[in-house]
Amino acid sequence: MIDFNRRIIAPSILAADWSRLAEEVRRAETSGADWLHLDVMDGHFVDNISFGPSFVAQIRPHTRLPLDVHLMLARPDHYVPRFVEAGADHITVHVEAAADPAATLQTIRGAGCHAGLALSPDTAFDKVIPYLGLIDILLVMTVRPGFGGQAFMARETMPHVARAHQIRRDLGLAFHIEVDGGIDATTVHVAASHGANVMVAGTSLFGAADMGEAIASQRRSQI
Ligand code: DX5
Ligand code: ZN
Fold first, then answer.
1. Among 37, 180, 205, 218, which is best to mutate for testing ligand 1, by the most ligand atoms less than 8 A from CB?
2. Cβ 27 under 6 angstroms from ligand 1
C-alpha cells in the first residue's frame, strides 16, 4: 500500500543551472529530494522548447532518484519508447495531447515505468476520469504548462486536486496526486490540504540558497 500521507518532493530541473547539470542533480539528491522532475517541451504543445531524451539519458548515471519525466509534447505516443530507453522511471503524458491516452498509458506501463496523466488548468476534470484506473500518477498542473516561475492558480486547480482525492477514495484507486507549477513554502500547504501528495517545485528549490532547508520546509505539514 502506498502511504499517500507521506509527502514526496520533486525538484524540477527546468530551474537548475544547466551549465553545471551533474552538480545540480547531486545538489537535489543530497538536499533530500525524493524524485527528480524533468520537463520535456516541444514548442508545439507548449510555446517553449526544453530538452529531449538524450538530456534525460545524460542525467541518468548521476542519480539514484526516480526520474519523473513530464512530456509536454504534441505526439507523446511517438516519443515514449525513446524516454524509456533514456532511463525514465515515470512518464507522464497530457490528456489534451495523447491521441489515445489509454493505449499510451498501457505502453508506458508495459515498458515497466509508472504511467502518469496530466491535465492543464483549463481542462475539464471529466476528461481524465476514464483513465484513472490505468495510472500511477495524476499530474494536476497548477499553472498553464510551458514555463517555470509562474504564479500558482489556486482557484482554477484546487477543485481538480480535491476531486481526484475524492474519486481515489471512493473507487479505492491508488494513484499519486502530483501538483506542478508555482509551488513554494506557502502554496505547498494549499495543495496538500486539498489532497496532493507529490510536490513539483522548480524556482523555489533550485533558486534557494539552501535547498536542503527549502525541501525540509516544503515537507513540513504546517507553515
Ligand atoms: C511548467 C513545468 C513545471 C515547472 C515548474 O510547465 O511543468 O514543472 O518546472 O516550475 P516552477 O516551480 O518554477 O513554477
Ligand atoms: Zn512539469
1. 180
2. no
- Classify 8-218 by CATH class: alpha beta
- Please name the residue that has the C-alpha cell 502530483: 178
Cβ atoms 49, 43 nearer than 8 A: yes
The ligand 1 atom nearest the CA atom of 205: 12
pLDDT one-digit tens code per residue, 157-209: 999 999 999 999 999 999 999 999 999 999 999 999 999 999 999 999 999 99
**Residue 139 near residue 177 (C-beta atoms within 8 A):** no
Query: Which 3 state secondary structure label does DSSP give 179?
Result: strand
Strand-pair partners of 176: 137
> What is the pTM (predicted TM-score) of this model?
0.98
